[in-house]
Amino acid sequence: MSATPFGSMTPDEREEFLSQPALAAPDGFTSHLANPESRNDLGLSVTITCTVIAWVLFLLRLYAFLVYRKETRIQEGLALVAAATFTVLLYPGYHLVKIGAFYLFLSFDEPWRNAQFHDMTTTWYLTMLFAKSAIMLEWLRVFWPGHSRNYVYWICNITLGVLVAYFSAGFIFFQARCQPFDKAWNPWLEGTCANRSYIDKASVFFYIALDLVIFVLPQTMVWRLHASLKRRIGKSIIFSFALL
């Protein structure tokens, strides 16, 4: 492809540039861009199902606190914001999947599609910031006795501090990585953008480590309870819903 800046091309050169494939297919493979094979429907079904389950569980919890305990805590507020932001990002995600955008991202010439990706990314960081913070605060409330700073206290607080710093930094990075700001979704503008691949790769390992802490910490407490096996299994399953 030409290395000439898109903005300085003639109309004919732009048309020729946009008509080229964004990336050549590997040797021995043929691209099927018109109707690529995928399992998008399954992915959407799982995502929507998990979202509905999470909303039902959250509303039941909120109802119990408001009606029976007549109180709310900061984690309920954080969870409500997280549920709202996650529900908001479902629409652009659904739209991009239906038009095959995740397969054709390298061929984009419409800035509005890139803008949807940008909005999804920043909204996702906000969702994770509020959701994971709410979970760690809840684990601290449930499993920390309050009279001594045991390992639960330190794990919850250190994890909370790290995740707040990471997701806040990620949100700020994606707002400030391009100059001018519009270049984040319009690559043809003159300007510069910081390389996002490093934070994308780091996020994979960070999410895995964070989810392991969220899952393992309550399990270590549940399986130490002096209760029947049936009750411990039930409680273990309940606390596993945090991974949703």
TrEMBL record:
Keyword Transmembrane: yes
Record-annotated Rhodopsin domain positions: 99-242
Any Pfam family matching the protein: Fung_rhodopsin
GO (cellular component) term, any one: membrane
Main location: membrane
UniProt keyword Acetylation present: no
Transmembrane segment boundaries: 42-66, 78-104, 124-144, 151-174, 204-225
Keyword annotations from UniProtKB, A to Z: Membrane, Transmembrane, Transmembrane helix
Compartment(s): Membrane
Signal peptide span: none
Membrane topology recorded in Swiss-Prot or TrEMBL: Multi-pass membrane protein
Family: Belongs to the SAT4 family.
Protein's name in the database: Rhodopsin domain-containing protein
Organism: Clonostachys solani
